[in-house]
Amino acid sequence: MSERDRFERLRLIRSPRIGPVSYRQLLARFGSAGEALRAIPDLAARGGGKASVADAGAVEREIAATRALGARYLLMGDVDYPVLLDQMEGAPPALIVRGDVGLAAKACIAMVGARNASAAACRFARSLAQDLGQRGAVVVSGLARGIDTEAHRGSIDSGTIGVIASGIDIVFPPENRDLQAQVGNQGLLVTEHPPGVQPLARHFPARNRIIAGLALGTVVVEAAPKSGSLITARLAGEAGREVMAVPGSPLDPRAQGCNSLIREGAILIQNGADIMEAIGGFDPRMVRQGSFDFIGEPVSSDVAERERTAVIALLGPAAVAVDEVIRLSGLSPAVVQTVLLELELAGGLERQAGGRVSLR
């Protein structure tokens, strides 16, 4: 991949309304990011709106700032882009990383849990992370308070990956400043956001998909119902990864999430041996290498107005599966995906988890 192509791909990623799905579709249809950038205004016009592309100067400044921080980019299609993450729905087209990228190629286990974790859970998480490190595994977590912090502390010497919901130069929570620096120096620090981006609430669910995507399985140590940790576990399960949980007292609300996961089929975990046994049947060599040739959703270069009208008529503010739109419309997947892409670029469509879409 030439430097020019890398620059244009990053510019495409940073353009308004370009998400992971539309990024893949545009590359699949036009063959290069440069051609895709030139086509965006016309595609948006067909969708009934206007669209602009990222300013080249702004992208150049982002690249300079990233390099000044001692970080670098991993673009989808790079040979060292994490293979397991590539399999996740909505995997980020670009990562900014600092540290040892080779850690992501090892057997990774995600460990997540409550921010207001009990002292006993924190102690157990730290011990469990140490145990996993001694068994050759790399621990992935989110550098949050509580369980995340202890998971990183327990695995910092053996290998840990911290995924953050902000720019790589931003520390959150502030008390983890030294720990985040240590992860970047001794382990691997990962984000999908440019330098300077603050950790907004909407960034955390997106961060969770990266945590789940990097790992063969996710362990929840302590979590209340409806917590972010359970989102990570759900994403792991949807991706076909192992979901594991540490049981807790039914009298402690912080254990209800884990106990519910176990009741629903998650593997009960008591030590590192249990985790390694759970992931023992997963062979990473069986994972496809799809991103290297940018296999994307089928798109068409020509859509009749009656076809566009038929697709739009099936959409509304309530999310619907794209497969359902294809079935009800009777149109080819290529035509439906093209109409959705045009609407998205025009600002009229929102993509949601599980391959669903809705009108804005």
UniProtKB/TrEMBL annotation:
<comment type="similarity">
    <text>Belongs to the DprA/Smf family.</text>
</comment>
<dbReference type="Pfam" id="PF17782">
    <property type="entry name" value="WHD_DprA"/>
</dbReference>
<protein>
    <submittedName>
        <fullName>DNA-processing protein DprA</fullName>
    </submittedName>
</protein>
<dbReference type="InterPro" id="IPR057666">
    <property type="entry name" value="DrpA_SLOG"/>
</dbReference>
<feature type="domain" description="DprA winged helix">
    <location>
        <begin position="300"/>
        <end position="355"/>
    </location>
</feature>
<dbReference type="InterPro" id="IPR003488">
    <property type="entry name" value="DprA"/>
</dbReference>
<feature type="domain" description="Smf/DprA SLOG">
    <location>
        <begin position="73"/>
        <end position="279"/>
    </location>
</feature>
<dbReference type="Pfam" id="PF02481">
    <property type="entry name" value="DNA_processg_A"/>
</dbReference>
<dbReference type="Pfam" id="PF21102">
    <property type="entry name" value="DprA_N"/>
</dbReference>
<dbReference type="InterPro" id="IPR041614">
    <property type="entry name" value="DprA_WH"/>
</dbReference>
<dbReference type="InterPro" id="IPR036388">
    <property type="entry name" value="WH-like_DNA-bd_sf"/>
</dbReference>
